[in-house]
Specification:
alpha/beta; D-Maltodextrin-Binding Protein, domain 2; 2 domains; three-stranded antiparallel beta sheet; 13% strand; transport; signal; Extracellular solute-binding protein
């Protein structure tokens, strides 16, 4: 190792004591420089909080490994199923992660208006398409504050190819380790989108259309008729006891006498089944919802910057690039392959994967999950209302009471000037108009 040369000392004649002190100081300074040169410089690090655990975390770590190798930056990833609570606690403690990944646009909107988020770098903003990443006006400035890392298609019904998607009992499971009730809110959102169109859907999702409007009320009633034909609530009641993944974690879709034959669920459900699973749009599985709009509900996992550092900017830029997406796509079995806002090519031959990509890119309108867009308290009230509704889906008085409560909650947020996501629906990148 080459020792750094000792710095020169200023000449101070006549005073031997002063000269001796100066020489000692210079020697100590030289030793300090030598020690600094010998010490190994710590690698910069980025902390990331996200929703992926288990095998999903393992595949994401493959992407992070490529980043570590390329940039020499360490990444500390923490995956949790209690994302909202963990992030809120960290923010309140003044120690948020550098980057957080979450699906709630309503939560992200609140964090942005509270000054907790950093606007995205220009390169990332350009890769952050609608409807997943709308611009927000914060302090009279328009900026984009989050970017979709991966996305999912909704508005589809899964079935086995040898069984019709138009017949058979519905697979229903309202339980979830995170927030129970969302499989039901997905149903209501999709029905409203297909019956009333993207414009009405967006008005409702952004708090402008009352819950007791005829369009929203009819969406709930339509779902009640689908899951409780003839007024029987047996199947609906059973959904309250079922996890959306099946209580054995192997999925609800009928295989060996499970009692249901078709499932309304997002594209992530493929990971619970074999490669022979197929889907059709909800509008084909439920004839009364048929229309020519070619509109789909979508969801996504959004990355946002809570700390503005060179390392955090490098990582969020990397995660939205094609090389990282291609690495992620190759790192997992086909049935667990992630989807992105734009295609990065076909990795594997599973029919469902190709069909999902073609549906996302070929739609005329994509609309983000409405409950993900709502303020967190309203989102939670919506999910709870779904669970209460399932106790008696044919009870009109019960429904009116639930809708009134949701209208009250919406008014409360408006009275508090709570921020809302400004837009929900858009054409896909390179898609319809």
């Amino acid at each position: 190792m080459n020792r750094p040369s000792r710095p020169g000392c200023p000449r101070r004649p006549r005073r031997r004591t002063g000269l001796r002190l100066l020489l000692t100081s210079c020697l100590l300074a030289g030793l300090a420089l030598a020690s600094a040169a010998c010490a190994q410089e710590p690698r910069p690090a980025v902390s990331v909080l996200g929703p992926w655990t288990g095998d999903e975390e393992e595949s994401f770590e493959t992407v992070l490994d490529r980043f570590r190798e390329k940039y020499g930056i360490e990444v500390d990833y923490q995956g949790t199923t209690s994302l909202r609570e963990t992030l809120l606690a960290q923010v309140q403690a003044g120690s948020p992660p550098d980057i957080a990944v979450l699906n709630s646009l309503g939560e992200l909107t609140e964090y942005a208006h509270a000054g907790e988020l950093v606007p995205l770098p220009d390169e990332v903003r350009e890769r952050s398409p609608l409807p997943w990443a709308p611009e927000l006006t914060v302090d009279r400035r328009k900026n984009t504050y989050w970017t979709p890392v991966k996305v999912d298609l909704k508005s589809v019904v899964w079935h086995y190819p040898d069984r019709s998607a138009r017949r058979g009992a519905w697979c229903l499971g309202m339980g979830s380790g995170a927030t129970s009730g969302w499989p039901g809110s997905d149903w209501i959102e999709d029905i409203l989108l297909q019956r009333s169109g993207p414009a009405v859907y967006e008005q409702w999702a952004t708090g402008e259309l009352p819950w007791r409007s005829p369009e929203v009320r009819e969406a709930w009633r339509t779902w009640g008729r689908l899951i409780a034909p003839g007024g029987s609530g047996t199947q609906a009641a059973a959904a309250l006891a079922n996890d959306f993944q099946g209580n054995d974690g192997k999925g609800l879709l009928a295989a060996d006498g499970r009692g249901c034959a078709r499932e309304h669920q997002g594209s992530f459900v493929r990971r619970l089944y074999g490669e022979d699973i197929a889907f059709v749009p909800t509008t084909e599985a439920v004839p009364e919802l048929a229309n020519g709009r070619n509109a789909y509900e979508v969801a996504g996992d959004m990355a946002a910057l809570f700390r503005d550092t060179g390392s955090s900017r490098s990582l969020i830029t990397f995660l939205t690039g094609d090389p990282a997406r291609a690495t992620w796509a190759r790192a997992v079995p086909e049935r667990n392959r992630p989807f992105f806002p734009v295609s990065v090519g076909a990795y594997g031959d599973a029919w469902a994967n190709r069909a999902v990509e073609e549906t996302l890119s070929g739609a005329k309108r994509l609309c983000t999950d409405a409950s993900d867009v709502m303020p967190p308290e309203l989102r939670g009230a919506f999910h709870r209302a779904v669970l209460e509704f399932l106790a008696a889906p044919a009870d009109h008085d019960l429904l009116e009471g639930l809708l009134e409560q949701l209208d009250d909650e919406t008014r409360r947020h408006h009275a508090q000037n709570a921020p809302w996501v400004p837009s929900v629906c858009a054409a896909p990148v390179g898609g319809g108009s």
